[in-house]
């Protein structure tokens, strides 16, 4: 979320590779934190068989052309980089990642950041990051918008009938469900959370048990021992 730059002297600002930790403040509220975690967990689970991406949130992206920590850095609330190795990182350091910038960025608006997210950050993501898709979402008032980079300029994405926006980069829709920003498949299915999958599995197991119990009861009515089958 940070937009400020460090005020270090030139002799203090050069860091060796690998020593660039994230330098981001906490998210605005529990709503923002939970929303960020929801998006990360859903995408990681949906792409559990893939190892060619990196997804994170509220960690610093360092992109100084002079490879300095003290200048040119931002901390998107959620971002995805494609075509990279799936592994934990302290931060995203562009000059250590083959010059790669995020393919998708989502900012979570708040009273203190909304103007910057709609203005300065949008300009940076368009002109410097050249991030193909940029979205923002306000967990409080549910403001939601998305943009795609066309000929170097962000153009608004058009919502479908459900109000969802298509992400070509992720090959998923983004849309609001139960006051949260969620992913949906091209067929309109909700991309589940780990908890939702566990609940579905529990429901299926209970249904199977009930069917088994009914079958056993019917066999007993017919004088057949279910255990003998």
Helix and strand arrangement:
Elements: H1 30-46, E1 53-56, E2 61-62, E3 73-74, E4 78-82, E5 92-93, E6 104-108, H2 114-118, H3 120-129, E7 133-137, E8 144-150, E9 153-156, E10 165-167, E11 172-177, E12 180-184, H4 194-221
Parallel strand pairs: 2-5, 6-7
Antiparallel strand pairs: 1-4, 2-3, 4-6, 7-8, 8-9, 10-11, 11-12
Question: What labels describe this entry?
Answer:
single chain; 229 residues; alpha+beta; six-stranded mixed β-sheet; three-stranded mixed β-sheet; elongated; disordered N terminus
- Calculate Rg over CA atoms: 23 Å
Total number of helices: 4
Q: What structural class is derived from the secondary structure elements?
A: alpha+beta
**Coarse morphology:** elongated
The number of distinct β-strands equals 12
Structural account:
By secondary structure, this protein is α+β, with helices and mostly antiparallel strands. 26% of the residues lie in helices and 22% in strands. The chain has four helices and twelve strands. The strands form three sheets. Strands 1-4-6-7-8-9 form a six-stranded mixed sheet. A hairpin with a 6-residue loop joins strand 7 and strand 8. The longest helix has 28 residues. The N terminus is likely disordered.
């Amino acid at each position: 979320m940070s937009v400020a730059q460090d005020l270090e002297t030139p002799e203090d600002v050069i860091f060796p590779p690998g020593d660039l930790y994230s330098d981001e403040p906490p998210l605005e509220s529990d709503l923002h934190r939970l929303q960020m975690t929801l998006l990360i967990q859903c995408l990681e689970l949906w792409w559990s068989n893939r190892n060619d991406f990196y997804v994170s949130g509220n960690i610093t992206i360092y992109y100084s052309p002079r490879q300095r920590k003290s200048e040119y850095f931002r901390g998107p609330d959620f971002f995805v980089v494609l075509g990279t190795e799936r592994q934990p990182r302290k931060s995203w350091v562009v000059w250590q990642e083959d010059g790669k910038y995020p393919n998708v960025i989502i900012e979570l608006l708040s009273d203190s950041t909304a103007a910057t997210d709609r203005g300065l950050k949008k300009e940076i993501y368009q002109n410097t990051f050249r991030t193909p898709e940029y979205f923002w979402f306000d967990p409080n008032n549910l403001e939601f918008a998305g943009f795609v980079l066309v000929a170097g300029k962000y153009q608004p994405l058009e919502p479908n009938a459900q109000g969802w926006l298509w992400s070509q980069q992720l090959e998923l829709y983004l849309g609001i469900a139960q006051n949260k920003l969620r992913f949906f498949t091209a067929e309109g299915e909700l991309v589940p959370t780990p908890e939702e999958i566990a609940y579905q599995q529990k429901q299926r197991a209970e249904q199977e048990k009930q069917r088994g119990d009914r079958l056993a009861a019917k066999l007993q009515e017919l004088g057949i021992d279910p255990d003998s089958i």
